[in-house]
Protein 1
Amino acid sequence: MSTAGAPGVQARGVGVRLDGREVLRDVSVTAAAGSWLAVIGANGAGKSTLLRAITGLLPYSGEVLLHGRPADRLKPRERARLVAYAPQSPELPGDTSVYDYALLGRSPYIRHFGRETRHDRAVTESVLERLDLARFARRRLGRLSGGERQRVVLARALVQQAPVLILDEPTTALDLGHQQQVLELVDRLRLADSLTVITTLHDLTLAAQYADSMLLMSDGRAAASGPVGEVLTEEAVAAHFGARVRVAEGEDGRPHLFLLRP
Ligand SMILES: Nc1ncnc2c1ncn2[C@@H]1O[C@H](COP(=O)(O)OP(=O)(O)OP(=O)(O)O)[C@@H](O)[C@H]1O
């Protein structure tokens, strides 16, 4: 699938109503193919809802294009080959093994009533290895810690090998080492395969370290979007998170946030 020059994901005027409530209003954003977009915002701002709309899991008004194709007109298999999504806290089948759950990511490539191929198994094993999960391969999901479960959800999404990768808070339950491991792996895959990555991350410094661009959501709307340094300002954090911070440039040239006690 050629991605050169094309936007990976485009949302234009996206709106979502849930239970009669307007949860998203007129949100427009573009993530260039091969780039990393961080969606940030306070609790309840609409980040997860936007991710679910982009993934095609929610009915929306407006337009979402995945590699130029309208997301709501894709057949499920087509969509699954184009976009992989790791939700924030999915319901997991407790009796399924780590390996079998991760292998589900290969479903869009396995023919109906067909079996997985050697390649499907090799991809699955490689992802489990890289996420430090190989030793848990036979363990049931119900017998994992929170952070291990979170890595398994990410594994399933990576096993899907879709060019658009959407991750809702992929690091919340992870210790520092695993946070770094997961984000570095995602970044390596992004660079190697030109993946378009969209994440929500509450740790704004972490988000700033990895993202090329940011979308700041507030009350269901896009409050700001653009290069990380332009969106992540002390004023914006005060206005939209109610937090006092100092934003300083780190050694990597990216903004680092320090919480200031009132
Ligand atoms: N089914 C629903 N019906 C009505 N309102 C909903 C429904 N699901 C979510 N909402 C509301 O939509 C708003 C946006 O929710 P969303 O989960 O997208 O926020 P978020 O920015 O991801 O928040 P968080 O940082 O807490 O995960 C919230 O106010 C939430 O209460």
Protein 2
Amino acid sequence: MTAPELDLRGFRILPGLLDRAAQEAMVKALREVVQAAPVFSPQTPYGKPMTVRMTSAGRYGWVADRSGYRYAERHPEGMAWPPIPDHVLALWRDLVSVERDPDCCLINYYGEGARMGMHQDRDEADFSWPVLSVSLGDEGLLRIGNRTRGGRSESIWLRSGDVVVMGGDARLTYHGVDRIKFASSTLLPQGGRINLTLRVVD
Ligand SMILES: O=C(O)CCC(=O)C(=O)O
Ligand SMILES: [Fe+2]
């Protein structure tokens, strides 16, 4: 049974939207993406490696290195990004729009001890499109702040199968992942957490 929908500071949270079979199908499709476009450890512009490893599917992928954060049409190793899996697109069409598909599916992998600092998602051209997030595997503690950096925040544990729509007035709200509960889920044999975010880039 799916838990009721929540609104946390304008983030629409759909707990347990994906059942176990849907989560497994998504992981299977993502394995194919990762075979074509391996996960890498981005460097922040300040030269520090990020603890989250990532790759992307779609026309654009998100990359970070000494010259900054941006969307790029190629993986750092030179290949084009593989297409966004159909299962993932179907979720976007159900929850966001059939008018336009996302052109990036960013795949974040959080191993033991990985985290993501507070940030806004603001490398896209049009903030009227939401960012749709899907959590798979271990639980992750999402922190939701404000439209400017700092201030009070609220946190929520995201579990495997939870979906979040970050849109409307909350599209530029600061957010981050403080920690994961390593090995809290049996979905991924190696443990860890996958988060997908679907984005309209240009
Ligand atoms: O892992 C998450 O739940 C959030 C990821 C995120 O904020 C991002 O990739 O921009
Ligand atoms: Fe984000």
